[in-house]
Prior knowledge:
Elements: E1 3-4, H1 15-21, H2 25-28, E2 36-37, H3 39-62, H4 65-73, E3 79-80, H5 81-87, H6 93-105, E4 109-114, E5 120-125, H7 127-159
Antiparallel strand pairs: 1-2, 3-5, 4-5
Amino acid sequence: MGRPCSWLLGGSLSAAKLAEERSDAVASRGVAFDLTVPSAAGRIVDELLLHGQAGRQVLARISDKWVTLSLAALADGPLRYSEISRQLAGVSQKMLTQTLRTLERDGLVTRDMTAQVPVRVDYALTPLGESLLSVIRPLKRWAETHIPEIDRARTAYDDAPR
């Protein structure tokens, strides 16, 4: 049996409020349908709610396309900016720069500048970044394994009369 998931409706709930609103979260927001999540997912939702905005920010950060691809590019060792850029076809210079700065700020990547002409800047995963990579690899394998199924589902959806 699932539990109401009111945070999906835009609410920001403390742990105490979550317990209070759990049984009627959807109804109290005037929504005409029941939105529930399975118990295991509910525990994850509870964890995210307990960590509040910070938990959602971290989840949003690590689910970003360029973050994931940048971490994967650094999996085999340090790379220069231009090498990362070549591996991430389609990323703009501005987006890659923002992504790498954010990863450095979050402690997932180090930026090592070597004084030479021209200046050499290398990026590498930190132990924290490597631990995240261990989560990303199975997700990447899942995506690669299920591409044909997803393509079939998309085609069936697109071909269905609406």
